């Protein structure tokens, strides 16, 4: 999925569902383990600017962690679902307040096992 920016609005383009095998998920979890969160949601929550930052981080790194510091489980799950839906990324895993996302870029930096 690509996101186009026009007049500071997000437009979702070319929405495709990605599926990963268990072997690929385990591989990505291993790569994500030493990573630090690259995006931290603040008091304003999930804003358009945060989504743009997440999209840019996914384009650069392909595999990122995002920290959502909220104590309400339902709110946290809704934010996680919204991030996955709006970015078109694959949710590798969630641990506490952190979600790990993967989205292959055009450069294909991470070579997934078959």
UniProtKB/TrEMBL annotation:
UniProt KW keywords: RNA-binding
Domain CRM as annotated: residue spans: 18-114
Domain of life per record: Bacteria
PROSITE patterns: CRM (PS51295)
SUPFAM superfamilies for the chain: YhbY-like
Record-linked Gene3D superfamilies: YhbY-like (3.30.110.60)
GO molecular function, one term: RNA binding
Pfam families per UniProt: CRS1_YhbY (PF01985)
NCBIfam families in the cross-refs: RNA_bind_YhbY
Protein's UniProt name: RNA-binding protein
Lineage, broadest ranks: Bacteria, Pseudomonadati, Pseudomonadota, Gammaproteobacteria, Alteromonadales
């Amino acid at each position: 999925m690509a996101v186009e920016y026009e007049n500071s609005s997000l437009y979702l383009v070319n929405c495709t569902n990605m599926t990963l095998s268990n072997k690929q998920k385990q591989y990505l979890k291993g790569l994500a383990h030493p990573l630090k969160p690259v995006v931290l949601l603040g008091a304003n929550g999930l804003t358009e600017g945060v989504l743009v930052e997440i999209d840019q981080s996914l384009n650069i790194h392909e595999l990122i962690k995002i920290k959502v510091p909220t104590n309400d489980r339902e709110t946290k799950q809704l934010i996680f679902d919204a991030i996955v839906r709006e970015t078109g990324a694959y949710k590798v895993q969630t641990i506490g307040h952190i979600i790990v996302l993967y989205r292959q870029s055009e450069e294909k930096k991470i070579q997934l096992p078959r």
